[in-house]
Amino acid sequence: MKLKPNSFFHFLCLDKIYCLLSVRNARALTAYFHLLDVHMKNALNNLQFYHFLHYVTNLSSVQIMLVFDLLDWDGKGEIGFDEFYMLVCIIMAHENHLEKQFMYRHSHAVFELLDMDGGHTVAPAEFQATRFLFNIRKTELSQIFKDFDISGDEQLNYKEFKMFTIFCIDRQQRKAKEKLRRQLAKAAAEAKAEEEYANFIKLAQSSKKF
Ligand SMILES: [Ca+2]
Ligand SMILES: [Ca+2]
Prior knowledge:
With about 210 residues, the protein is mainly α. It has nine helices and two strands, in the order H-E-H-H-E-H-H-H-H-H-H. One of its GO terms (biological process) is flagellated sperm motility.
């Protein structure tokens, strides 16, 4: 999922920790939603929703209609502002590489979104169909079920899913720490090389004098 250039959403800023919009940004989003809501129903029907997502993202028609069905969990045939807000936060999280942080912070809402049949578990097929929303690679899926399906029923219940999101954040933090450690080591090595070079020049200049 990618945001198209020149989209209004490039002007919004998602909080990196909580993965939510600021009050000011949320108000701007409300105004945007009302512009889309031409029938003034405080909701978007599938046609309005389709054109909106088609305009701002590179999602296929099938994916857009799947997202509509996921958000329209009560089958009313329309998307209200709360669902719209959640979708925009997911898009923004994707755009800012905060998908795993979003899953962790909003694990219950994400779990309910992925549980397409409302059976209170996420099956491999449900994860496979929705993985594009959170940038989960196909190859990761079988490993996720292998590692986190503790009960062995080939489904993730909420506790198992929550453990998966904690693991993702933990892995992300370890990677960030490792990256920082490498950057510091590189900077130290460069500083040492510069110092050695300066000492060498000093030595060369003093030997010329004699
Ligand atoms: Ca399910
Ligand atoms: Ca399980």
